[in-house]
Amino acid sequence: MAKFIVGLTGGIGSGKTTVANLFADKGITLVDADIVARQVVEPQSPGLQQIKQHFGEHICNTDGSLNRAVLRNIIFADDKELQWLNNLLHPLIRQTMLQQVAQATSAYVIMVVPLLFENGLDRLVNKTLVVDVAPEIQISRTSQRDNVPDSQVEQIITSQISRKDRLAKADDVIDNQGDLADLTVSVDALHNQYLKLAQQTL
C-alpha cells in the first residue's frame, strides 16, 4: 500500500525537531534521516564493514563503533574520499528510510530530512514542509544550543540551500518565529490537512 509521505525540512536551528515531535505526539511515525544515517554505520552493519575495508581498522574505536572524528578529518581533507563515502551511504540511507516508511502504521509518515532538497530526496515524498525562521534566529539558536561561534553556524547556513530557494520549493511552510502555542496551532492545521490527503491516496 502506498504511504502518504511528508518531507519535513528546514535550515539548521529552524526547529525541525520540535515540529517533528509535535507530529509524533499525534501518533504520526517519524523517519529521521539523521537517525538512519547513524543506524547504517552501527557496529556489525554492512555499511561499517565496507567503511572499515576501505579506510582500514583505525577508522573504528576500540569498542567497534565508528570513530567519527577520524573519518571527518579524512573526508574533509579529500573530496574523492567524501565522494566515495556519499556513494556508499546515500543509497543505504534512502533504502533504510523507505523500509521504515513501509513498516509505519500511522495514517501518513513524516520524513525528517535536513538536506531534503540538496540530496534530491524530495522526489520520494508527496508533500514538502519547510520550517522557516530568519537567519539571525538560526544563528542565535544554534550557537547557544551547540555552544559554537556564530561564524561556524553562518558557514553551515551558507553550505545549505538558500532560504529563498527552500521556500520556493516548499508545498507548505511553518513559520517558527513565534512561541510553542503558535507552532502547535500550525501543526494541528497541517495534521488535519495531511490526514485528508492520506485518505484520498488510499
UniProtKB/TrEMBL annotation:
<keyword id="KW-0808">Transferase</keyword>
<keyword id="KW-0963">Cytoplasm</keyword>
<comment type="function">
    <text>Catalyzes the phosphorylation of the 3'-hydroxyl group of dephosphocoenzyme A to form coenzyme A.</text>
</comment>
<dbReference type="GO" id="GO:0005737">
    <property type="term" value="C:cytoplasm"/>
</dbReference>
<protein>
    <recommendedName>
        <fullName>Dephospho-CoA kinase</fullName>
        <ecNumber>2.7.1.24</ecNumber>
    </recommendedName>
</protein>
<dbReference type="InterPro" id="IPR001977">
    <property type="entry name" value="Depp_CoAkinase"/>
</dbReference>
<dbReference type="Pfam" id="PF01121">
    <property type="entry name" value="CoaE"/>
</dbReference>
<feature type="binding site">
    <location>
        <begin position="13"/>
        <end position="18"/>
    </location>
    <ligand>
        <name>ATP</name>
    </ligand>
</feature>
<dbReference type="InterPro" id="IPR027417">
    <property type="entry name" value="P-loop_NTPase"/>
</dbReference>
<keyword id="KW-0067">ATP-binding</keyword>
<comment type="pathway">
    <text>Cofactor biosynthesis; coenzyme A biosynthesis; CoA from (R)-pantothenate: step 5/5.</text>
</comment>
<dbReference type="GO" id="GO:0005524">
    <property type="term" value="F:ATP binding"/>
</dbReference>
<keyword id="KW-0173">Coenzyme A biosynthesis</keyword>
<keyword id="KW-0418">Kinase</keyword>
<dbReference type="GO" id="GO:0004140">
    <property type="term" value="F:dephospho-CoA kinase activity"/>
</dbReference>
<keyword id="KW-0547">Nucleotide-binding</keyword>
<comment type="similarity">
    <text>Belongs to the CoaE family.</text>
</comment>
<dbReference type="GO" id="GO:0015937">
    <property type="term" value="P:coenzyme A biosynthetic process"/>
</dbReference>
